């Protein structure tokens, strides 16, 4: 039972959702509801109106335009994990989708909801950052894009709706690794990497306050080789304050774990890039 | 706060249309159990972790404590009461779980059957998911009797069903 009450409106179009969002204090967008509904129950989330966009079919599905994948925000995590275009062009995203929750949560949980969640660390933001993805946001003034890194830093701005994730489909040289909390499946730490001609792009979450791109680590590893020793040394050079101790974890442990997961991901990505 | 009056919703549950009024914050599991009396769907944690409330929503297995009734309106819902086409008879999966002793106290069983039904249906005929695949699929279903081994065997038996006469033709007298 949800102990707070709220209004519910099923949006018939994206325009209607934006109008409702602009006109109501405390309005929240409801997509799959897999983190918002438990959040409302525990009191971690508040809402006076839920605007249900789950049925807007035009925001769902994966397409490819040249070198870019367009992933509709209402694509479910199950669909993302299984999509052949995503598996070929952005394997770190497919792996992150699969690492999320459980089959039932993946059947309803959406790309947009996972990227927009702020209460707990989720898996897609690091993969989106490592992939160099951009978020497509619709607002009263029209549609714009923002880097995935910016979305992870400040969330979906008030009054806007996340409509798609635009991902460079750069091939197989990418990977995702995660250590999940045994009970909740949320990441204690997750790391995503993509090896580009300019060097590796590396992002970490769970161990850090939010999903972060680690440019210092990238600089230290540019040119390779990505041995475990080199990666762990690159992480040790980061300021200790970067890692936030959690339930039963110290900053030292989390820094080491982030390095180990990144080293594994780089080893797999590098194996694919030379193949 | 002025809440809008509860609107009339339609849900197709186990093949039957159901019309009712529901408050906006009502969860699907509350409608199924308290509104429609379908108490085979259980409530364990009420926060989306234990999986004993799993039902099928338009064919996909979902946790009914993580779905608003209003958002499900217009959809097809199948609960444990509706899995068997011929009322009272066990499905192949249920029979295989019974034969492998895949239930202990039974509280998690309806959710397990509803979740595993999707896995079994999506497995090509004549093949069976591997043990790691079955265990991964069970991530969202907690059994505190910890009877997972027998559940895994039950799924493998169910997938092997066409070649296994013990599943498809159970003597009527057996085990009764």
From TrEMBL, chain A:
SMART domains: CO_deh_flav_C. GO terms for molecular function: FAD binding; oxidoreductase activity. Residues 1-172 form the FAD-binding PCMH-type domain. Signal peptide: none annotated. Keywords: FAD, Flavoprotein, Oxidoreductase. Pfam families: CO_deh_flav_C (PF03450), FAD_binding_5 (PF00941). It comes from the Bacteria. PANTHER family: XANTHINE DEHYDROGENASE SUBUNIT C-RELATED. This is FAD-binding PCMH-type domain-containing protein. It comes from Streptomyces katrae. The lineage of its organism: Bacteria, Bacillati, Actinomycetota, Actinomycetes, Kitasatosporales.
Automatic annotation (TrEMBL), chain B:
Pathway: Alkaloid degradation; nicotine degradation. Keywords: 2Fe-2S, Iron, Iron-sulfur, Metal-binding, Oxidoreductase. InterPro entries: 2Fe-2S-bd (IPR002888), 2Fe-2S-bd_dom_sf (IPR036884), 2Fe-2S_ferredoxin-like_sf (IPR036010), 2Fe-2S_ferredoxin-type (IPR001041), 2Fe2S_fd_BS (IPR006058), Beta-grasp_dom_sf (IPR012675), Diverse_Oxidoreductases (IPR051452). GO terms for molecular function: 2 iron, 2 sulfur cluster binding; metal ion binding; oxidoreductase activity. Signal peptide: none annotated. It holds the Pfam family Fer2. This is (2Fe-2S)-binding protein. It comes from the Bacteria. Residues 7-83 form the 2Fe-2S ferredoxin-type domain. Transmembrane segments: none annotated. The keyword Metal-binding applies. The keyword Iron-sulfur applies.
């Amino acid at each position: 039972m949800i102990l707070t009450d709220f209004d519910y409106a099923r949006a018939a179009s994206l325009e209607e959702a934006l109008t409702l969002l602009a006109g109501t204090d405390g309005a929240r967008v409801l997509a799959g509801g897999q983190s918002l509904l438990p959040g409302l129950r525990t009191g971690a989330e508040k809402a006076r109106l839920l605007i249900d966009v789950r049925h807007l079919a035009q925001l769902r599905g994966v397409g490819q335009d040249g070198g870019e994948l367009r992933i509709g925000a209402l694509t479910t995590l199950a669909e993302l994990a299984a999509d052949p275009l995503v598996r070929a062009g952005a394997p770190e995203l497919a792996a992150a989708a699969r690492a999320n929750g459980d089959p039932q949560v993946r059947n309803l949980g959406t790309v947009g909801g996972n990227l927009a969640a702020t209460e707990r660390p989720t898996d897609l933001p690091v993969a989106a950052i490592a992939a160099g993805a951009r978020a497509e946001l619709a607002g009263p003034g029209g549609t714009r894009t923002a880097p995935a890194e910016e979305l992870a830093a400040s969330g979906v701005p008030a009054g806007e709706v996340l409509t798609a994730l635009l991902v460079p489909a750069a091939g197989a040289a990418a990977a995702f690794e995660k250590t999940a909390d045994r009970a909740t499946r949320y990441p204690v730490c997750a790391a995503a990497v993509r090896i580009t001609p300019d060097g590796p792009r590396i992002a970490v979450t769970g161990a850090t306050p939010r999903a972060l791109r680690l440019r210092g680590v990238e600089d230290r590893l540019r040119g390779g080789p990505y041995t475990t020793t080199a990666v762990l040394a690159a992480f040790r050079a980061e300021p200790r304050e970067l890692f936030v101790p959690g339930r039963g974890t110290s900053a030292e442990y989390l820094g080491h774990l982030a390095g180990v997961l990144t080293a594994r991901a780089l080893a797999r990505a590098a194996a694919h890039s030379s193949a | 706060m002025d809440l809008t009056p509860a609107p009339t919703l339609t849900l197709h549950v186990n093949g039957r249309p159901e019309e009712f009024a529901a408050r906006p914050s009502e969860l699907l599991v509350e409608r199924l159990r308290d509104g429609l009396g379908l108490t085979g769907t259980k409530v364990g944690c009420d926060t989306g972790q234990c999986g004993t409330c799993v039902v099928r929503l338009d064919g996909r297995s979902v946790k009914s404590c993580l779905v608003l009734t209003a958002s499900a309106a217009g959809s097809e819902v199948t609960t444990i009461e509706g899995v068997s086409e011929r009322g009272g008879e066990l499905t192949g999966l249920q029979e295989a779980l019974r034969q492998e002793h895949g239930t202990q106290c039974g509280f998690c069983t309806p959710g397990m059957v509803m979740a595993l039904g999707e896995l079994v249906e999506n497995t090509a005929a004549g093949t069976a998911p591997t043990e790691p695949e079955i265990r991964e699929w069970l991530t969202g279903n907690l059994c505190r009797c910890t009877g997972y081994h027998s559940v895994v065997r039950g799924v493998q038996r169910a997938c092997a069903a066409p070649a296994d006469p013990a599943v498809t033709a159970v003597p009527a007298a057996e085990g009764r």
